[in-house]
Write a structure and sequence with these properties.
This protein is of the alpha/beta class. Helix content is 49%, strand content 14%. It has a 5-stranded parallel beta sheet with strand order 2-3-1-4-5, with helices on both faces. Helix 1 packs across helix 8 and helix 4 runs parallel beside helix 5. The longest helix is centred in the last third of the chain and has 15 residues. It is globular, with a radius of gyration of 15 Å.
């Protein structure tokens, strides 16, 4: 299926750099920027952690799916929440509008970057460790990714430049 609309959809674990790289990438690629975590918080009037604490992680996933399905844009960088790939419906919707880029960071790098694992608003089971979450999501990220870019050991600017390099020459980028 031919990709249209020129969006770049960033997926990956919390701490992989989606939000920060997304802003830099949008500037470098002359695209708009959408952070779906911000859309969720604005829509709900609560932080992600408040949603998880008050209504549970499955409610956050459901809200995230609704927000992702409502996105209808062209020529944007879309930074998704780390749990976006749990919804095949949402991922299929997003991928119709662009290229899905998985920002891969190894577990040790993520541990160093995430100092607020218990208060970050992750859509995870209460008994689930970060390592378990990492293993569970890796399969989903690789399944939906059109392109995988390593973010461990690289600055956000380097990751953004690598994405642009990898996408140059692709139709509708």
């Amino acid at each position: 299926m031919e990709k249209k609309y020129g969006n770049i959809i960033l997926i990956g674990m919390p701490g992989s750099g989606k939000s920060t790289v997304g802003v830099i990438l949008a500037k470098q690629a002359s695209k708009g920027f959408i952070d779906t975590d911000v859309l969720i918080q604005t829509r709900e009037g609560e932080t992600l952690q408040e949603i998880v604490d008050n209504r549970g992680h499955m409610v956050l996933r459901h809200i995230e799916e609704e927000v992702l399905l409502s996105i209808d844009c062209r020529h944007h960088v879309i930074s998704t929440g780390g749990s976006a790939p749990y919804s095949s419906k949402a991922m299929n919707h997003l991928s119709k509008g662009g290229i899905v880029v998985f920002l891969h960071a190894d577990l040790e790098t993520l541990r160093q970057r995430i100092c607020n694992f218990d208060s970050r608003g992750l859509a995870k089971r209460p008994d689930q460790s970060f390592e378990d979450l990492f293993r569970e999501r890796m399969e989903l990220y690789t399944h939906y990714a059109d392109v995988t870019v390593e973010s461990s050991g690289h600055s956000q600017e380097q990751v953004s430049a690598e994405i642009i390099s990898r996408l140059n020459g692709r139709q509708h980028f």
